[in-house]
Amino acid sequence: MSERTVNVFVLREASASALERIRAVAPGRINLTQAEERTALTAEQKKALAEAEVVAVGAGCPHDLGALAPRMQWVHANFAGITDLANRDFWGTGVTMTSARGYTGALPIAEMALTGGMMLSKNLDHAARETATRWKGREVFQPWLLSARTMGIVGLGGIGAHLARLAKGVGMRVVATRRSATERRENLDGVDVLYPASALVEMARESHFLAVCAASTPETEKLIDAEVLAALPKGAIVMNIARGEVIDEDALMAAVDSGQVGGAYLDVWVGEKEHDPDPRMANHPRIVMTPHISYRSDVPQQLGFNVFVANLAHYLNGEPMENLVEWERGY
After folding, report:
1. Known catalytic residue: 329?
2. Helix (H) or strand (E) holding 275
3. pLDDT over 90 percentage in the chain
4. Distance between CA 14 and CA 23 in Å, rounded?
């Protein structure tokens, strides 16, 4: 490992043990400063940030980070949806960027997607609403047999891979798309059929459940549109744990209202940082929503931080880093 000293600035909440793990990557050769995001920096912290070569940030990354850290060579985002940073001044520059894509809460998110889909397919959404009034009739309960259904995953990345394994565990057939796939392949990477992203409609025709796990980029905006929804088997269930912008919400509402889509679990919605969800979705009897909390669990998830620690060792050694962001594709 190189003997040079590196200035590292962690601009987010971090425990004492986490900071010690950073120092332990190269004892005595890491000058480490930490500050809370969205709080005013002290003069000393501003000076340290101006000298920083490596910066780790959270979702509250300053818009002018590039100006605040002119010597920054590498910035790490400890979350997955890094297009949220597209309006920061370092975006698209020569700065190297990595993210926690596929690691931050991937398993809890996958579990929530499966749980939301299962809730709707077993009519438990109806049961939850009607329990207090002792139900109006049993004929509305028509639960699916999961082992007779196919899970379709849009974006077989870290979250999608966990979801595929979980769906397989309850006996489901699993199909998926992946951006890097170039042709249809069977029995690959834990799924029965892997499709290229261009074959999304073909995959949708098989999918009784459609889980949206794709990154939000200009390329994937309204990716799940009226054509994709119409291709689903009638009554299919849609789960979105990615970003609201990946689904055409007007098309989704039309499909739910017509019965083409039997229900939807949505952890996200278009413009969630600016406003509440569309009341048509929030009040619909066949739509279950949560406020972008699918990544949470009672067991702390430190995998996103693990990526940064591992990459810091790679960086110091001049080795290739994991989860490098490609500005053009947005993740």
Report:
1. no
2. none
3. 72
4. 13
